[in-house]
Amino acid sequence: APEDSGSGPYGWAYSRSQYSAVLSAQAGYALPGHLDLTGYLQGGITGSGDLSEEVELSPYLRGYLSAQRSFPGHLTLSGNLGGTWTPDSPGITETNLSLSLGNLHSRYPGYLEYRGLSFKGHLDYRPGEALWKTGGVLSAAPAGFPLYGRIYGALSSIPVFSTQGALNFLSGAGYPVYGEFAGGEAVSSFYTGADVELRLFNLEVQRRVWFMPVFLNRVQMAAGYRAAWMGDPFFHSVFARAGMTFSPLVGSNARFHLTVRIEAAYSFTDRQFSFSLF
Q1: What's the pLDDT at 225?
Q2: Which of 19, 47, 89, 193 would you label with 145, given CA atoms 20 to 30 Å apart?
Q3: What was the pLDDT predicted at 237?
């Protein structure tokens, strides 16, 4: 289906109308010693242009190999190596490397009750253009305290981090996605920041929602502070978020859950409120 998109900074987003067709396959294998390997291969064709005129098609092939090793105490070491190939390039057009180490885990899967410490880093490189981008995030949730915090940052060979996107805080960054900072004019080759949130409560409810065949399983509430810097201006805000987890009342689908979250934020940078549903 066609979609309109604006022109991004430094040629990272073009075309008025874009089309794509994708075919992918994935395979995994568990080795002795808690080592898991996963391979992924994707082929596709992207096109741009008006359907009433000639459409330019660009095929591509993308794949990656990931490995994960588990240790006692929720400690996990994982890595991913991938690449993208297009026929109009003499070799691989982009390579991606990511590493993750830590024991960050959820006491209640699906409810975001984290405990532990982890670090995730990534490196993207385009050999033909000698362009690179690297970044990482350190996440911590101390045991015994209802706190969850992150410190993150990234650096690129050219200014690709931008607040001009309609949805993401920083296009091309990977971290983070903050709607209250999006839509500005800032462009930079680096960014750094942090966020911390306090879990106010996480209540088990397990009650039927009025006359509807739906159970309200859990209600959560959190509040926190965010800050990011990529030159001028300095972005910072406070936020409050409420979440509700539902499940069907009866039948085999009762084990499936749907979580709805509503967030309100106030940005000190532009002195405006924003709301989001996700």
Answers
A1: 96
A2: 193
A3: 94
